[in-house]
Amino acid sequence: MDTALPLILPTGSDSVEAHIERLAAVLDAHALTRVEYEQGSLHVVLEKQAEPVLLPAPFEVHTAPVPSGTSGITVPFPVAAQQAQAASQPSGNTTGAPDEVAKQLVKSPLVGVAYRCKEPGAAPFVSVGDRVNEDTVLCLIEAMKMFNEIKAPCSGTVTAIHFEDAVLVEHGALLFSLD
Asked: What domains are defined for the chain?
C-alpha cells in the first residue's frame, strides 16, 4: 500500500538525525513497516520487521477410558484436560466389551462430528451386540457440511461403541470394536 503522507521535516541547520527521528515517529504513528523519504541529496529508508503472530500450539489428542461403570467406552480429549475430563465424563448410551476381545477396530478416517443415527430421533445405525456385514453403515461423520458414511470393514458383531452421538471426533479416533 503506497500512501503518500504529508511530511514536513525540519529544514535549515537541523541534522540528519532530526530527519530520521521524525521519520521514525511517522513509522510508529501510522503502524507502517517501511518509510522512504527523499529531499535533495538526502535519501532515507526506514524499515522495521512486522511483529510475529503467535499461534496457539496444537494439542495432542489421546483416548482414555472413562471412569468405572461405563464398561470400555473411550472418549478423545486433549492431554492437558485428561484428569478433569475423566472425572466429569457423563455415562452415555454406548456400552460394550473391552477392546482386547475385538478382532477389528474401526477408526475415524477424518475429523468431524460423528452421528450414530441418520437424523435426530431416529434409531441408531447399529448398537452393541448387532451383527453387521461388510459395508454395513455404522455411523455418519459430518465434515465441511458433507456427511460421510463409515462402513464396517468386515462382517462381525459390534462389541463396543467408543463415541457419544453428535460429538467431534479426531482423525484416527476409535469409533467401534467388532468381533
From this structure: 16-47 (no CATH), 94-178 (2.40.50.100)
